[in-house]
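Our working data are protein records whose layout never changes between entries. The record below serves as our worked example for the rest of this section:
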Amino acid sequence: QDGQLRPQAERTEENQCGSCNEGYHLSGMVCQAWAGSCHKGSLRPQTTRTADNQCGSCNAGYELSATVCQAWAGSCQNGQLRAQAERTADNQCGSCNDGYYLSGTLCQPWAGSCQDGQLRPQAERTADNQCGSCNDGYYLSGTVCQAWAGSCQDGQLRPQAQRTAENQCSSCNEGYYLDGTVCQAWAGTCQNGHLQEQAERTADNQCGSCNDGYYLSGTVCQAWAGSCQDGQLQPQAERRADNQCGSCNDGYYLSGTVCQAWAGSVRMDSCDHKRSARQRTNA
């Protein structure tokens, strides 16, 4: 069975095999099947076997090496190997470490660039081009660096690299001063006058013009004052300088803004003529 009898001249009893069919081997005078088992696979078809324990096919995740099933193995850089049953070659990744993604069966790093900043640490990335921190003057919005912007009322914005928030002024228009990062108007009041035009101010309370009777001393309105010899000073609102008389004492008259004494002389011959005339009249 499963073979051929010995040549007639060699037989010494009944049923003596001399050769065996494929997949069988001669054991004494009997044909025995090559058998055994295949670890992680299935034995070869009987007629293709040439020894015991010959694998003909392998379970998922294993490869046939000659007649033995070997596991697909290897390593996965920056990740973990596929489940054994899913492998079709060595070094096949099935999942990746944080910061990496599966491209086919390889773990690739999330990469790219970050405009106006620095990429996130590798382990924190979940996509390409993810910023983790920003250059001076920029802030992180999600994973993108945005410029601090805005406007500066009555002035000019800070240079980009110096900004730490929106709407930060670094210099102000004439008539304004920097209060932190905001431009404030020089303001205040002008006693006895009117404030300077806004663009001309360099401090609070700066007068630009004065009421009648006052004059501008620097940026302050001073009263015209002084004294009036032999009279009284003009009313304040009428003065245009110090020491201006508005009225004079008896015996004095106003000459411009100065009190002058009534003065002059009397001729003696005129007095004699008047005296003689009075004497004749009395006689």
In short: Helices lie at 268-282. The chain is about 5% helix and 35% strand. The longest strand covers residues 17-20.
